[in-house]
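Cross-posted from the bioinformatics board.
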Amino acid sequence: MISKFQEGVITFDALAKQEILSWFGKTLDEENYIIEVEDPSQRVVTTDGQEIKLTEFAGIVKGSERYIKSDLPSLIEFLDTLE
Amino acid sequence: MSFFNLLGKLKNIFRGNIHIHDLLHHVININHIHIEQHSPPDAAPINEIAPGRLILNLDKLELSPAQREAIKAAFHEAVLIDDIPLLEDKSKERLEDIAVSESDSEIKILLKFFKKIIPAEDYAALRSAIYIKNKFDERAPQNEILSLKKEVREKFGLRGNKISNLWSSGYFKDMIKPIYDRLSSDPDFSENDFLKYYDLIIDEEAFAVFVPSTMTAEQLISIIRQKIKSNLRYGVYFITIHGIGKECVDTINGIIPDIETNYDVINRAITEKNYIIRAKFWFRK
């Protein structure tokens, strides 16, 4: 098991994504991209500037509220920050 | 400690609900909370589904507006202040799966080796390739493999596919690493020498033949004929043959007359150094 997860991890199922996003002040635009509730013109991006659709949303971690995408290369990149 | 803070907050939020409060009070060593929004009809609002693992069924909690705000604040703080990762369950599983795949001792050694010698973007693509090959070997469903390959192509383009193909065929381990080892043993070696060679291997991956040392001349001739036929069908009027080691170099040199006799070769470029050979032939259109 990844050591960071042994310290503690919160998970959610795919159907809870929108509720989780709402906790962080996020919602979706008409194209299903994650946006700021308070500034709907502002799409949420990953650390390398990629916009994130709801289907691609993998989670949130500390680091100026870092949003993670669920594709394989993004998860591999993210894994380095966990170990 | 951070998880302890989150549990403390949840206990406080649910202090009016004896069942939930008691459950939160008695669970020990919790390090995983899973949140669901659409739980089965008979699901409890909160349950310990496995040692150390709590499930929180949001749709069963019947939260007041104040409790909802308090829950939101508790998780907000857990993630952004206490540094607890908040992840979709499938992505968490995928991360654990990747970590297992990269924990293999041989893979670790190869990754450490290639990290130092290939471009960072290729190294990232290589890690994806290793994971995809593992899933393939585990007989993962074809749609999962295709989906992973698509993600690699979207991120790294055609080069990502080529790296994936080369890894799957064993050429990173059996060809590229030995080429680096051999080239770097030369006193005049520069990293650039290797990178030029490496780029050629990646660029021409689909149209090249990589010759293992155990291959006989007859086998090689048969493979080369098939590859030329396939290349010509795609409108590619060249073939590149790579080999490393004395036996391999001898085998490749030995079959060159066969190519030149049976095909309309208009140009050829053969480089051979330190028992590393690259032979490229261009054919008339």
